[in-house]
Amino acid sequence: MNGTDVTTTLRKVRLGESAPEALFPVVYEELRRLASGHLRGERSGHTLQTTALVHEAYLRLVDLRRIDWQDRAHFFGVASGAIRRILIDHARARNREKRGGGKVAHVSLDDVLALSVTEPPGAELLELDRALEALAKLHPEKARVVELRFFGGLTLPEIAEVLGVTRRTVDRYWLFARTWLYRELKTSLGEGGQ
Amino acid sequence: MSGGPRRDIDEILEQAAQLALTARERFLRDSCEGDDALLSELLSLLEVLDDSRGFLETGENSSQLQVIGPYTLGRVLGAGGMGTVYLGERSDGEFERKVAVKLIHSGLPTPDILRRFHREKRVLARLDHPNIARLLDGGATPEGRPYLIMEYVEGEPIDRYCDARRLSIRDRVSLVRSVGFAVDHAHHQNVVHRDIKPANVLVDRRGAPKLLDFGIAKVMASTDQADETHTGFQRLTPRYASPEQVLHLDVTPASDVYSLGVLLYELLTGAGPYDADGAALELSDAVVRSAPVRPSVRAARASAHVLVARREKSSASLADSMRGDLEHVVLQALAKDPEDRYPTAADFAQDLSRWLDSEQVEARPETFTSRARRFLKRHPLTAYFREGRARRESQGQRQLAETIAGLLQDVLSSVDPTLAQGRDIELLRSVLDVTAKRVNLELDPDTLIAARLHTTIGTAYHAIGAYDAAEAHLGSGLEARRRAGAGPLELAQSHLYLGGTCRELSRYPEAIDHFRRTLAILEQLSPPDRGQEALARDHLGRALEILGQDEEAERELRAAIEIGTEALGRENLDVIRFVGSLARFLTTRERPEEAGELAEDSVARARLVGDEPSLSMALVTHGFYLNWVRAFEEAEPVYREGLALRVKIYGENHPFVANTQVDLATVLESLGRFDEAESLYLRALETNRACSGARSLDVGTKLNNIGGLMRKVGRLEEANAYLEEALSIYREQFGDSHLWVVIARMNLGATLLARAEFARAEAELAEAESRIDGRWEDDYWRVQVLRSLRGAALARLDRKAEARPLLEAAAESLTRSLGEGDDRADSARRRWQEFVAEEQLS
Questions:
Q1: I want to staple B499 with a disulfide (CB 3.0 to 4.6 A). Which of B273, B315, B507, B515 is the partner?
Q2: C-alpha closest to that of B182 among B99, B253, B77, B87
Q3: Which string of b and e fits B523-559 if b means at least 16 CB within 10 Å?
Q4: Do A58 and B79 touch (CB under 8 A)?
Q5: pLDDT at residue B676 in the model
Q6: Do you find a cis peptide bond into B157, omega within 30 degrees of 0?
Q7: Whole-angstrom Cα distance, residue B505 to residue B87?
Q8: Looking at CA atoms only, how far is residue A115 from chain B in angstroms?
Q9: CA–CA min distance B447, chain A (Å)
Q10: Averaged pLDDT, groups of 10, chain B, 842 residues long
Q11: Predicted local confidence at residue B237, as pLDDT
């Protein structure tokens, strides 16, 4: 699937002629490719900015002249699922390494200082993923809002477009999910959480 | 709240959140209608609700920002790694004004970072130039997210603008010139753009270019918390980034000059200056290490689409318009070392003005000598290695060594004499010797870095004709690659290079072995590298040809052309060379019609592409063909042009030059200009002895030629000595049955005959004839000349019965095939007539 196809598929998604999942493989591949260089930690102190990553994939895959903002929202909807999987896979791999799967991952002072608010470090990311799974069992649509916003960097109006609900509903879902997840993570990661 | 349907938990939470703390719990109890589980869930959520504010809420937050200052945000104009740009419209004042609002996404900045941001912002706001989009304001949103407000430019990116309007080369140059002066204005205010690319150069409806985002890259960097120089995903596309930017070194105004160079290059040729594909890493590598493809060469491969957009009729006319001055200007801007570029953007723009006014530009083609001298002066190699140790802690040895290797590689690859343009090969050699010593002493030999450096050094030695040193380093490179577990492509490359060097050292079976290994490795690659495969097949075919394995040789040579054309295109320099290889092969195999067409075709393609090394090769092939079919008058000017080019490219003392001198000498010899021929032969012989060794095949061929000439001019003793030495070299190289050995024996036999050493002459000639072994047809002129000579020898040895049929048949056959007036036929007839006359006398 090339850029034109991605753009065409996005239009079909908007017209209800195609499911957004059709885009998943190509978007996932592109993101994985883009992310791999950054996840490998070429430079110490690097933080992965997922939003920037998704934007980059978007600019590469989509013909900007033939697309409007709803299409963009659907693209980012798919991308946020993909980026979540990439980050989680990476964090798992990193944890495996740390547990003694051969190499010992060296964590420098730089790494510690670089932990940015935009990207929880590996362990916390895995906790978040687990909590999000738990939330999805109870309230799937609210968990989806978090995925779209946190992993995909979507704005709230964009999320409304992707989920087909009103903006007000998205606000409400977000408030609930944020609070719920915070409580979960505060418990599992100890006092202070974030 | 009874009666109505039970509300969802999120609705209850939302409403509770809007209440005062004291009212919340009561509200919850009412809402839960006795559902204790729900109540306790809500209570625990409510407990953390206020703390959770801001949790997970980073990244793009634009949804909460419909208004910034006096501007209402509209549609998204663009999104990139550093931020999102919105159209902002001002509607509060008396006039409406559109602006571009750039909202930066990164973590929330600290006060210190914000101070830096504002300082940068003030500097940028001072920029006032008609071709620069103004920075109007900047600040931070109530949440602390920095934003910039910029002049909104309604226009198209410069590349799309030029193509959509089919602007000519001149118009394109003129646009870039304006951009150059604008960039220079900013440089005078101490602002470097850092991110010049088509998307940042818009052209408005009146055709005026406007630069966007001046200095924004730095402002962005100033808001980055993790690392001040970190500019997010900007580095994902190093298409316009200068080498120093790729290497994370200091960014100066010269970096903008480089980016302007890339911009101009693309507007002219429709493609970037490097052959790397889009992958960021590969491209970064090329930016740091590879010489840019010359614009005229790039233009020669331009697609129809690119030509139409530039109103050019053909890729040749586009290439023509670039060749010379304009090309020099572009390449000067693209110099790897900032100090080699134009000192300022204005100098660049002024040189473009000169070109537009048809004046002499200041840019000059880069010479190796100047670059090497400066490099050695400024960067003693030890400094690189020392710096390496110091920086290891922060970067890791491997990465650093890669960087060093890259810098060295850049210098060494310019040792290729096609770049050195014939200047000062001795200096090149001393650079190589110093580097080689360092690498041996200071690098762990079992690393890929050491392997790469050895390989680079080896190819550089090869390029200047120092084949022994080349072999040693290429061999070390291959060994190191094996031990360090290099990938298949690197191993294939090592074998290919080694094969080439073995060939120059006349060790053909080894060369063939290396080429076959190359192909075996390439065959296992997925996806296949067809270009490399074609190259290896051409090499293999030429080596097989020399060993006389004709059928296989022809198959490989044809495969090289076919695969190469498919993978690289007809006008690829390698493919042009492959065509020449086949032309040469067919020429010596007496299939002149196809050979002649191929040779001419190869010259025509090379002229079209305008690449001097390729053209010199094609000319030499064409000359070789003309010489072979004895069109000497036509061959001379072709060879002279080829020789002049080669001296220019490789210098006087290069084996390639020696070979061409010999080619020209044989032509002059055939034209009866013996003195000129002799001096060329002797010069070539000296060169070959020095470069390839006294017992190399190249020396053999030269000895054979000189011997033939000496015989012709009656200096028989000298002739004899030369020819014997030639024969012994040939036998050493090929064994006794190779056709070259047959030819050398013939020449020696003829000389012995002339010196009246009839028994030895007859023995050599008989040996030669017995070795032909059906590979030449009976009526081939060499066969008949050989028999005629042997007949003459036999006659003198009083073996007249054997002599008679040989002499008679040869005279008749040669007259029939070559015609009267041909010196070979005339000589054969003369021998026959002498024999008959003597018979009659006795």
A1: B515
A2: B253
A3: eeeeeebebbbbbbbbbbbbbbbbbebeeebbebbbb
A4: yes
A5: 93
A6: no
A7: 68
A8: 8
A9: 20
A10: 61 83 81 85 84 63 55 68 70 66 62 65 79 81 73 88 90 94 89 87 90 71 42 52 78 92 94 73 72 85 82 83 88 88 93 90 66 49 42 46 62 54 59 74 72 84 82 91 84 92 86 93 83 92 87 94 87 86 87 88 86 87 89 94 89 86 90 92 89 82 88 90 92 80 90 92 94 81 93 94 95 90 89 91 78
A11: 53
ipTM exceeds 0.85, yes or no: no
Query: Facing residues of B76 across strands?
Result: B86
Between B269 and A6, name the one with better pLDDT: B269
Question: In one letter, which amino acid is A174?
Answer: W
In single-letter form, the type of residue at position B760 comes to R
Q: Give the integer Cα–Cα distance in Å for B468 and B505.
A: 8
- Interface touch A183/B76, C-beta < 8 Å: no
Amino acid code (one letter) for A10 = L
Residue B464: how many CA atoms within 13 Å on its side-chain side? Answer: 27
Name residues whose C-beta falls within 8 Å of residue A60's C-beta, 6 or more positions apart in sequence: A3, A30, A34
CA-closest candidate to residue B646, choices B637, B634, B654:
B654
Helix (H, G, I), strand (E, B) or coil at B103: strand
User: DSSP H helical segments within B629-757, as ranges?
Assistant: 632-650, 655-670, 674-692, 697-712, 716-734, 739-754
Contact residues, chain B, for A52 at CB < 8 Å: 80-82, 105, 232-233
Q: Which of residues 111-150 of A touch B (CB under 8 A)?
A: 113-114, 116-118, 139, 142, 146, 149-150
* C-alpha span between B627 and B642 (Å, rounded): 14
Helix, strand or coil, per DSSP, at residue B656: helix
Which chain B residues are within 8 Å of A142, Cβ to Cβ?
10
Residue B67: count of CB within 10 angstroms of its CB = 10
Cβ contact, residue pair B233, A194, below 8 Å? no
The packing angle between helices B345-356 and B253-269, to 10°, is: 30
